[in-house]
């Protein structure tokens, strides 16, 4: 979410309560929960499990499950780095997630996936699983135009290989980012008219190189220039939705974003519905467009109103801290949202077939045409180039990270594996087709 929601939600800070021991009382799990726990941990510890079973035939897999039960499976599905308006770099964010016991982290920066490679690299050191994500800024128009347009944030969760057509998504996101520059410039102009001689360069410097500025960057510049005492005041007086210095960007329609997420192998989730004026109409319309879930959990627990809304429209109930690393102001800590294991199971039940299918599509393209371009599509998030030597390595890498043995035993994957076994990858990323012997 934008800073507004965090700052202007008194309930969130007032009702924030510390949960003792992270998971609360040690209640005995029901049979359903135990089963869910097993299936979720299988996916979470896939890589470690498979590395160990390849190395030796001990009972590492079993001990991992036991370990995960002792340690709890913590998913953080909503977080921001300084690639958008967060304060921590992707690697610092991963480090903090690790310290807080997070096992699966979705990096969901606003309108960009540029932090994913760095997050993945850091995650390898800390044995955290990264879900490549993005939070897309959109707007919603009610049908018939009876209600005013509303800003709506849509979270997208992708597989380890990212979107099936990264180019389509990237074009969509870069249009939004361009709109954000314009919007921030308009806000500066409005502030100038309100007799605050704020400089555009100041805002751009705070946002950082290559980062599309948002309201929070404008607010920080206002604080630094001494026009307001703090961020909260900047939002409450000038930058709130429809405020005197507020400006809209050129966001796409929420329905368009959801269709694109679905078409590119992602899971689409409505972020912080509590910041919407018109949540029922929005959820109804977005469900028709293909929405998979809505946020319902926060660090202060489950919000019954939105949970009921999710039930009405048969949507996944998810949530995350929406951590920005601002510190203070009662911000929810990274990993502070305890999603119940049944929620995690339901999420993976919907997401995994989607991700499995998208990995298959990306690998199939490469197997059909093993070009540099198609290789780059598979290894999109590898930092500093991959160290793969042949096509088989490539497919094993994708498998080990994300697919269970069950998901791999699939005729389509076998066909891809066969095709790729004849492809070798040179260090420079150049492929040579080797005649099959
Ligand atoms: Zn948001
Ligand atoms: Zn957010």
UniProtKB/TrEMBL annotation:
Record-linked InterPro entries: PHP_dom, PHP_domain, Pol/His_phosphatase_N, Pol/histidinol_Pase-like
CDD domains documented for this protein: PHP_HisPPase_AMP
Every Polymerase/histidinol phosphatase N-terminal domain range: 75-140
Location of region: Disordered: 1-30
Domain of life the protein comes from: Eukaryota
Segments of skewed composition (Basic residues): 12-28
One Pfam match: PHP
Gene Ontology molecular function: any one: 5'-3' DNA exonuclease activity
PANTHER family, per database record: EXONUCLEASE, POLYMERASE_HISTIDINOL PHOSPHATASE N-TERMINAL DOMAIN-CONTAINING PROTEIN
Protein name stated in the entry: Polymerase/histidinol phosphatase N-terminal domain-containing protein
Species of provenance: Malus domestica (Apple)
Taxonomic lineage from the root: Eukaryota, Viridiplantae, Streptophyta, Embryophyta, Tracheophyta
